[in-house]
């Protein structure tokens, strides 16, 4: 069971980036549909658990050591390279959203212009990759439990200080910008782009376990834990819709409402998670094209950093709504390919 929890925990860590923790993703894909957004969270939980199980089992069956093996197995000789490039593009997209998220956090917490926050995060990411400062990332990775603790405090605060009826909150929620046309599409899109971003690593994690049942159980556990977090954050935002309507960082706004010190703690944890995600995504994106030991690696990091900064000026809320939803629609291809590969694999196992 310990190994299953490790796989499940790693799956949660992959998905709960800064967009998730800030509440902006949950707002656009779930809360903006009012009461039905809660149903959407339950649907997302089931789909996350099912796809998590499939990916972890595939990794276990194939005993994969790199994400490329798994993706080429899923897509085959023709679709494999296309899926590989799509996932690579998503890595860049997620890093850009982290840059924009830093700008939104700086503005909402300290009143500093968003572009300054974008620049600070881009420079920190570039310097980390140029200087190979890996110890910082290990420290930042330990922030996740603190974030979850703050989110739980925010949830309690939201429920005990709710000022409006459920009907009034439902009306307010439905006035917020949504990333999809309906609650069920929002749920499916949310799962789709997150699976597209996390599929590669989940396959590799599954490959570390020879027992496919243990691996599959880890995928299911990860999906269920993610679902619980989605529902909790969604309920927190819904209960205080009058406070979080229209803000870039909803959970940060709620933390500030409790006490300015709680808001600053939340901002620092969010910035740490954005930094962690940005460095990881940027590194994997760059090494896909050029090896770290090549002379052109460092100049490429700087160049890609400047391109990422330019893209991040579109704004955090806009990027979460437009970029992530586009990635979600494209991710449907990957989700279908994953399910077909799993069906093929199950058929092959039965025949042997």
How would you describe this structure in keywords?
single chain, 352 residues, mainly alpha, Amino acid/polyamine transporter I, 16 helices, 83% helix, 0% strand, transmembrane, transmembrane helix, membrane, Membrane protein, YkvI-like
Note the run of SSEs as H and E. Answer: HHHHHHHHHHHHHHHH
**The CATH homologous superfamily:** Amino acid/polyamine transporter I
Overall shape: globular
Strand content: under 5%
Number of domains: 1
Keywords: Membrane, Transmembrane, Transmembrane helix
Transmembrane segments: 33-58, 78-100, 106-131, 143-162, 182-206, 218-238, 258-285, 297-317, 323-343
Protein name: Membrane protein
InterPro entries: YkvI-like (IPR038728)
Write up this protein.
83% of the residues lie in helices and 0% in strands. With 352 residues, the chain is mostly helical. The chain has a single domain, classed as Amino acid/polyamine transporter I. The radius of gyration is 20 Å and the shape is globular.
Give a concise summary.
This protein is mainly alpha-helical and 352 residues long.
Topology, element by element:
Blueprint: H1 2-15, H2 18-22, H3 24-29, H4 36-62, H5 67-110, H6 114-131, H7 134-141, H8 144-160, H9 166-174, H10 183-206, H11 212-239, H12 241-244, H13 250-258, H14 260-287, H15 297-312, H16 316-351
Helix pairs in contact: 1-10, 1-11, 4-10, 4-11, 4-16, 5-6, 5-10, 5-14, 5-15, 5-16, 6-14, 6-15, 8-11, 8-13, 8-14, 10-16, 13-14, 14-15
